[in-house]
Amino acid sequence: MLDQRFDPAEAEPRLYEAWEKSGCFKPSGDTSAQAYSIVIPPPNVTGVLHMGHALNNTLQDLLIRFERMRGKNVLWQPGTDHAGIATQMVVERKLAEEGNQDRRSMGRDAFVDRVWAWREESGGAIVGQLKRLGASCDWSREAFTMGDRNDPDNNMMRAVTKVFVELYKKGLIYRDKRLVNWDPHFQTAISDLEVDQREVPGHYWHLRYPLADGVTYEHPVKDEEGNVTGTETRNYIVVATSRPETMLGDTGVAVHPEDERYAGLIGKFVELPIVGRRVPIIADDYADPEKGSGAVKITPAHDFNDFEVGKRAGHTPLNILNSVASIVDGGEADAAGIPADYRGLDRFEARNKVVEAFEAAELLQEIEDLKIEQPFGDRSNVVIEPWMTDQWYVDAKTMAQPAIEAVKTGKTRFVPENWEKTYYNWMDNIQPWCVSRQLWWGHRIPAWYDEDGNVYVAYSEEEAQAEAGKGKKLVRDEDVLDTWFSSALWPFTTMGWPDKTPELETFYPTATVITAFDIIFFWVARMMMMGLEFMGEVPFPDIYIHALVLDEKGQKMSKSKGNAMDPLELVDAYGADALRFTMTAMAAQGRNIRLSKQRVEGYRNFSTKLWNAARFAEMNECGAPGEMDYAAVKSPVNRWILSELSKCAADVTRGLEDYRFNEASDALYKFIWNTLCDWYLELIKPLLAGMDDTDKQETRAVCGYVLDETLKLLHPFMPFVTEELWERRSPGRAASKGFLMSQSWPSGEPFTDEAATAEIDWVIDMITEIRSLRNDLGVPAGSRVPLTLVNATSEIEQRAMRHEDVLKRLARLEEISMTETSPEGAVSVVVGETMSALSIADFVDIEEVRKRLDKELGQLDKDITSTEKKLSNENFVSRAPEEIVEENRERVRDWTARREKLQAARKGLEGL
RNA sequence: GGGCGGUUAGCUCAGUGGUAGAGCACUACGUUGACAUCGUAGGGGUCACAAGUUCGAACCUUGUACCGCCCA
Fold first, then answer.
1. Which has the closest alpha carbon to A38: A71, A73, A77?
2. How far apart are CA A668 and CA A613, in angstroms?
3. What is the Cα–Cα distance from A574 to A17, expressed in whole angstroms?
4. pLDDT for A334-366, tens place per residue?
5. Sequence-distant contacts of A858-864: CB under 8 A, at least 24 apart
6. How many angstroms separate the CA of A659 from the C1' of B23?
7. What is the DSSP letter of A383?
8. Which of A705, A729, A752 is the last residue of a domain?
9. CA-to-C1' distance for A592 and B67, Å?
10. What's the rounded mean pLDDT across residues A744-754?
11. One domain, residues A746 and A875
12. Can you spell out the DSSP letters for A218-258?
C-alpha cells in the first residue's frame, strides 16, 4: 500500500543517486538516433543556486528528458566557469580572514595554487545544488573553463591558446593603448558589460576658469524667468563637472561652435587654477549649449567622451591617476604640473582639496545637487575610472558580422523572436572587446615581449623564442584573459576541441541554448562569433530566452535588497517537483516570473493529487498492463479517457517542441486534475465495484495504462514523484524494464472516439447541471432525490441506464425513471435535448426556482438576439468563413431548443 | 535620447481575429473508504484610453496616458 503522500525529502536523493549510478544521464550512444545536445550555461564556480538557475536548468532538463524519452542520443553537457574576478576575490578575502599574506606577497604561483585548492575544496557547490533540482546532466563529462590542473596539456588550455594565437595572426586580436574601464579595487581592466551604470545622488561643481592673457568677454545675464536682461563682463569661463579632481588633467575647454556666447573665446586660453597650465578653448560639437554653462572641461585621459574630443583637437592626454585611483607622483605628476600636496592623494580626498582650493580662490560659482550616472564595477562595487592602459582587444566589429548574418539568414533563431532586435542592436554598435585582465586567476595571455618591446604571440615560449631569435630575453605577458573569452568557446571545447573527437562530430552544433536575456551579450553573442570563426558553423540553431525570476512585487531578486528566495529552501519545503512545475507553468514566453510560495505550494498539492490517484489505482488493482490494444476497449468511459489522454499527449508534445512550456504544463495539469481525477476516477468507481467482470478487467487495465502513460508525460516536469510511482505501482519494474526516465515517450498516435466522448460529455453535463441546481436551490447535500427523464429518446434512455450507477452516485439521486410528461412538483433540468425533472419540491422555495429560471432565460434571450442579429447581417454571412457562420447557426439552434424547454418548465411552475 | 516590453477578475498571470480563461484569494455547502495538501457549487472583468481597419477586435494599425527593463 502506498503511503498517504509522497515524501520528497526521502525519495529525491535516493532516486537521483540511482539514476546517476545507472548511467542513464549519459548519451545512449545510439548512432542511428538523432543527436540532441545542450551545453549548460556554465554557472560561476563561486556561485550558489539562485532562482534564475532554477528556472534555467529546469527548462533545460525538461527538454533533455523529453528528447531522451523520444529516443534521441542526448547529451546535456555540464560544467562551471572559472569566473576570474569573482574567484580571485573569494580567495583573497579568505586569505585576509585567515590572516595570511596577501596575494602580492605570496607570489603568483603560490596564489594560483591556493585558488585551485579552494576550487577543489569548496568550489562548484552549485553542482550539487543542480542535482537537487533533478538536473540530468552527464556529470561524467563535467567541464571547467580552466581545464584540468593535473593535465597541463588539457584541451581547454590548448583551445584558448589556439584561439588567441589564430585571432592574433588574422589581425582580429591586437594590443592597443586606449581608455579602459579600470577597477581600482581589483586593479584590473573590465569590459563595458561588467560596468553597472547607476544613478546616484551627486553634485555638479560649477568652476570658474580664469581667462589667460587678460581676456574678457560679455556674458548674457538672465532674470529669474530665464529672459536675457543684459550682459556682464567676465574674465573667466564657467565649466560644470561632477568630478572636479579631474581638472588636474584638463587639456582644454570646449564650447559648441555655434554657441554665440563663447564665439569670441575660441582660440583663446584659460589658465588652470592649481596646476597653472595654459589650455586652449576649442570648438567641438560635443559641448551641449543647453547643458550647464555650455562650456565643458576636457580631460582626455579620464573620460571616454573627452578622449575623443581631445583626439580631434590634437591634445596629448595627461594622466593624473595611478592604478588605485590616487593622484600620480613622479614624472607624470611633473608633466601635469600637480603640486606636491596633491600627489598620492586618494581621488576623493583630491576632489575635496580641489574644491577647497577653488573656493579659497573665489572660483567656485555654485554647487548643484543632482542625480548623476556613475559607473560601478559589478563585482567590486567601487567607482570605475576610465584609465589609459595597454590592453588586448578582440576586433568584435569584424567578428560580429557573420554572427549577425547567421541570425538574419535564419541559421540561428531567437525564441521568442523579438530578442533578435536586442541582439542586432548590440552587435551593430559593438565596441572592441577588451579581453586582458590584470588578474592572476585565468588563462594567461600567450604573448611574450623582448627587451625592445616587440611582441611575440605564440603557442609556447619555445615558439615565441624561435620567432624572436636566439639570445633575445623574453618576458611573458603578466595578464590573463577575460573569463568570457573561454566561455565563448564552451559549445566546442567541452566536446574536446581542438582535438577531433567523436563527441564534437556527433554533438556540435548543439540543439539549443537556454538562457536569460541579460546573458545575450556576455555569452550568446560571443559563442556565435567564436563558433562561426572556429567551427565554421553556428553553435546552435535555437536560442531560447526565458524570463527573469522576480519577487512577488516584481523586483529583481538580490541579496542586497534582501528579497531573494532560496530555491533550495523551496525544494526542502515542497519538493523539487513542485518547484520545477512552478517554473515551467510560469515560463510563458517573454514575461517575467513573479514567484510566490503559494504557487509552489499549489503544485506540491498537484503532485499529491497524482499520488492519490495512484493510490486509488492500487486499491482497485489497476495494474501496469504495459501495452494497450485500443481497438479492443469497449466501454465508453474507457474509450473516452483514451481519447482525452491522446489529446493531452499531443498538446504536451507540441508545447515542448515549440518551447511553449506553460502550455505543455497546463495541458498536463488540466488532464490530471480536471479530467483524470475529477471525472474518470469518479466515473469508473461503479465499474470497479460492480459485478461485471469484463468491465472490471478492462477498466483496471485502462486505468493502469492511462496512469502509466500520464507518468511518462509528466516525467520531464516532475521527475521524482513520477519515477517513484513508476516503481511503486509495479514493484521490480525499474529493474526489469528500466527507469521511467528511460521509457519511450507516448507515441502520440492519435486516438479519438467521438461517440464515446459525446456520451461521457453528456453524463458529465447531467451531473454538473444537477449539482448546480441542488446547490443553488439549497437542497441538502446529503439528500437523495428522484430524477425523471421526460420524453427522452431511446438513445438517451440507454445512456442513462448505462450510466445509472454513476449518475446516482455523483448527482446524489435516489432513482432514475422515465415518463412522458413532467411529474408534478419537480424542477426541470435541461441538458442538450434532454429534459428531466428533479423531484426536489419538498426542499425548495418555488420562488427561488423561478428566479433562477428567469435569470437563465434572460441570458438566453440576450445571446439568441445578438447572434440572430449577427446572422441576419448580409456581410457577416457572405464574408465570414463558412464554419464560423455554421457555428453561430448551431449555437442559435441549441439555445433556442434550451429556451423552449426552460420556458415549458417555467410554465409548469405557474400553477404552484 | 535610442530600443524593447507591459497595462485582461481582489492578486499573479495565460489567451493574439470568431461566445473572455487559469491558479490563488473570496462566499456557501460538505456527503460518496484515492486525496481536507480534498470535494461540490458560486460571486467577481466597458480586456488602460481614443481613433482606425474588418462582417467581426482583448488580439491588427495609429495615437495618448501610466509602469517597467536594456543601451547611450
1. A77
2. 14
3. 20
4. 887 888 888 888 888 889 888 888 888 888 888
5. A860/A895, A860/A898, A860/A899, A860/A902, A861/A899, A863/A891, A863/A895, A864/A892, A864/A895, A864/A896, A864/A899
6. 21
7. B
8. A752
9. 14
10. 86
11. no
12. EEEEE-TTS-EEEEEEESEEEEEES-GGGGGG--EEEE-TT
- Whole-number Å distance between alpha carbons of A115 and A822: 88
Query: Which residue type sits at A477?
Result: D
Contacts of A632 (CB under 8 A, 6+ apart): none
Beta strands in A534-592 (DSSP E): 542-546, 549-550
Model confidence pLDDT, tens digit, residues A472-502 = 888 999 999 999 999 999 999 999 989 999 9
Say if residues A511 and A540 touch (Cβ distance below 8 Å): yes
Q: Are residues A601 and A730 in the same domain?
A: yes
Cα separation, A660 vs A510, whole angstroms? 20
Half-sphere exposure (Cβ direction) of A858: Cα atoms closer than 13 Å: 6
Beta strands A549-550 and A593-594 are parallel
Which strands make up the sheet holding A827-831, listed edge to edge?
A813-819, A785-790, A834-838, A827-831
- State which amino acid sits at residue A675: T
- A524 and A643, same domain (yes or no): no
Q: Residue type at A555? A: Q
One-letter amino acid at A233 equals: T
For the residues of A501-565, what is the DSSP string, one character each?
-HHHHHH-S-SEEEEEGGGIIIIIHHHHHHHHHHHSS-S-SEEEEEPPEE-TTSPBP-TTTT-PP
- Å between CA of A885 and C1' of B55: 11
- In degrees rounded to 5, what are phi and psi of residue A462? -60, -45
The residues, any chain, with a CB within 8 Å of residue A568's CB and separated by 6 or more, are: A49, A129, A132
DSSP string, A345-377: -BHHHHHHHHHHHHHHTT-EEEEEEEEEEEEEE
Give dist(CA A197, CA A537) in Å, integer.
Answer: 35
Collapsed DSSP state (helix, strand, coil) of residue A93:
helix
Q: Tell me which residue has cell 573590465.
A: A190
Measured CA to CA, the distance from residue A234 to residue A212 in angstroms comes to 12
Asked if residue A581 and residue A545 are part of one domain, the reply reads no
End residue of a domain, out of A553, A568, A583: A568
Bridging pattern class, strands A217-222 and A228-234: antiparallel
* Whole-number pLDDT of residue A671: 95
d(CA A508, CA A36): 9
A559 annotated as ligand-binding: yes
Q: Check whether residue A196 and residue A281 sit in a common domain.
A: yes
| Alpha helices, H only, A778-845 | 794-802, 804-811
What domain range includes position A895? 783-910
What ipTM was predicted for this assembly? 0.94
Q: Which positions of chain B lie under 7 Å from any protein Cβ?
A: 2-6, 12-15, 18-19, 23-25, 28-32, 34-35, 37-42, 54-56, 68-72
Name residue, grid cell 602580492.
Answer: A104
Amino acid identity of residue A204, one-letter, is Y
Residue nearest to nucleotide B68 (CA to C1'): A554
Distance, Å, A423 CA → B3 C1': 11
Please state the rounded mean pLDDT for residues A249-255.
86
**Cell reading at A748:** 502520440
Backbone angles phi, psi at A196, to 5 degrees: -100, 120
**Taking chain A, what is the end-to-end CA distance rounded to the nearest angstrom?**
55
Average the pLDDT over each of A290-294, A374-378, A430-434, A752-756 and give the range with the smallest value.
A290-294
- Cell numbers 448527482 correspond to what residue? A811
Residue A422 belongs to a domain: no
- Are residues A582 and A600 in contact, defined by beta-carbon separation less than 8 angstroms? yes
How far apart are alpha carbons A610 and A355 in whole angstroms? 71
**Same domain, residue pair A530 and A610:** no
The nucleotide whose C1' lies nearest the CA of A554 is B68
Nucleotide nearest to A373 (CA to C1'): B72
Q: What band does A554 get if pLDDT is binned at 50, 70 and 90?
A: low
